[in-house]
Amino acid sequence: MSGWGGGYITDITYMAGWYRQQSPAMMAIAALLGNVNAGIPAPDDAISYLELGCGQGYGAMLLAASNPKWTVTAIDFNPAHIAEARAWAAEAGLTNIRFLEADLSTLADEAQAATIPEADFVSLHGLWTWVPPAVQAGVVKLLAAKVRPGGVVHISYNVLPGWGPAMGMQRLLREGGNRLAFRSDQQVERAVTLAKDLLAAGAPQFTQSPLTRHLLDRMHTMPVSYLAHEYMNASWKPCFHSEVAAALSAAKLDWVASSQLPENFGSLMFTPEQQEILNRFDDPIMRELIKDTCVDRLLRHDVFVRGARRLSPVARNDALMDVSISLNINPADMPAEADFPVGKADLNAAFYGPIAQALTHGPRKVGDLLEIPELVGSRDNPAEMIGILIGLDLAEPAIRRDAAPGEQARAFNRVAAKNYLGTTGLSRGVGLASHRLGGGTMATVLDLMIMTHAMNGETDIDTLAGYVNAPPEQAEKVREIVRISVEDKQPRLRAAGVW
Ligand SMILES: C[S@@+](CC[C@H](N)C(=O)[O-])C[C@H]1O[C@@H](n2cnc3c(N)ncnc32)[C@H](O)[C@@H]1O
Predict the structure, then answer these.
(1) What are residue 378's phi and psi, to 5 degrees?
(2) Which of 316, 328, 341, 366 shows the shortest CA–CA distance to 442?
(3) How many CA atoms lie within 13 A of 55 on its CB side?
(4) Which residues lie closer than 8 Å to 70 by C-beta, 6 or more apart?
């Protein structure tokens, strides 16, 4: 590992990816669910978006491509990330994004900080608990200087107490890996073998921790670049929500909600007994500690606002009624139930079925969906509809519901197709840019391949299946996944305005 990273790995690049929690529309919807007005971007708003620790910048580019009037600034200290991101952005012809190579521990005090515009929305995904305290302090200083009053910040981090039982495993991976190999990818691979060997040899700290066993079990399914950036950093330290809230308060940021939308609904998170205990407190930070004690997850996605403007229930409902949503699934595939921390919940087919049908051809406003004749009077809760449909990845927010597919988004998706096809498995998920959504929607690399042909008018399933490089014995299977993409997924991508 080279010396300039301050303990953060710099010899292996992080994989490019889209994470929907980074989308301003998602952040603003989460804030609304927390009763705070953060202003969902309007179609023609000239939003200023900032990402700190952007990696290869895929998410920032996707947002720039989807929203030509936005100004996007993305920062990372690894020159390999910035060089890759700049090359991709240039190839896609993006002119509204700027990548800055800078160290967040000192950037706020450097001259180039003056060139960063005041931000309406900021995202820090996968940074906070992986970097040393000096970088966290630099981040807070930059947020204090650059988040506009009323601006919104998304931050994800590894959380305690969830991570507690597996902290020893991370230490073993890091210390063992450092001594077993030179490069971070080889370090993590050899360290995983070491940890699995210890598990097999009956080491009680591993055998008696279901979390450690679970993490070790699924490691072979993870890309090595993810594992290296997740486990091989010297300063990795999961933390309590209250610690993040205290640190960000120095930038006048208040915690308002989770951008994992179902987490904003107590009825989906807590049993009645847990809810009774929660209700002893009205301090939101204490309530989050109880949530982190009751909910089994390792990563939090929080939304903070600089100057939280609280909304009345009526104003909040009005704002939620105004949100437009686009369906991610075939309406016939609307699930009948879903898993939440509290258990399985019925999704009420009589309510969600007609809504899914109404979304078949494109996004609709939540308020209009609640006016569908067979639904009038049955439920009038826009928060629940958004929490369920967007929260369960069944739908995406759409900030320009009637917009045509944007040329800039299509150019970005074409570059995604060129860069992913042939270099990664066809089942890998990728985010595609959409001007209509103002953000991304997920598809597989296979869907992306079919899309590029379908855009040229090629839709015959057998012809398209012929483009997939697979052994003859898999021909039937290939034909079936191609059929599903043509008949189910492509209409979804069209409805979302991707093409
Ligand atoms: C886990 S990656 C997340 C990348 C991106 N946000 C994503 O989700 O794909 C964390 C990123 O933070 C960057 N980083 C770490 N320390 C940094 C520092 N001191 N200054 C700037 N960037 C830093 C790393 O280079 C890496 O790209």
Answers:
(1) -80, -40
(2) 328
(3) 20
(4) 45, 46, 47, 48, 49, 63, 64, 96
32-65 pLDDT, tens digit each? 999 999 999 999 999 999 999 999 999 999 999 9
One DSSP character per residue, 399-427 reads: SSTTPPPPHHHHHHHHHHHHHHBTTB-TT
Q: Is 104 in the pocket of ligand 1 (CB under 6 A)?
A: yes
Name, in order, each residue with C-beta under 8 angstroms of 90's C-beta and a sequence gap of 6 or more. Answer: none
Structure tokens at 212: 């450690």
Please tell me the distance between residue 53's alpha carbon and the centre of ligand 1 in angstroms.
3
Largest Cα span, the chain? 67
Residue-wise pLDDT for 109-127, tens only, equals: 999 999 999 999 999 999 9
DSSP letter string, 452-491: HHHTTT---HHHHHHTS---GGGHHHHHHHHHHIIIIIHH
Is ligand 1 within 6 A of the CB of residue 154? no
Give the integer Cα–Cα distance in Å for 449 and 444: 9
Residues in the chain: 499
Q: pLDDT (tens digit, 9 = 90+) per residue, 377-408?
A: 777 789 999 999 999 999 999 999 999 999 99
Any ligand 1 atom below 6 A from CB of 126: yes
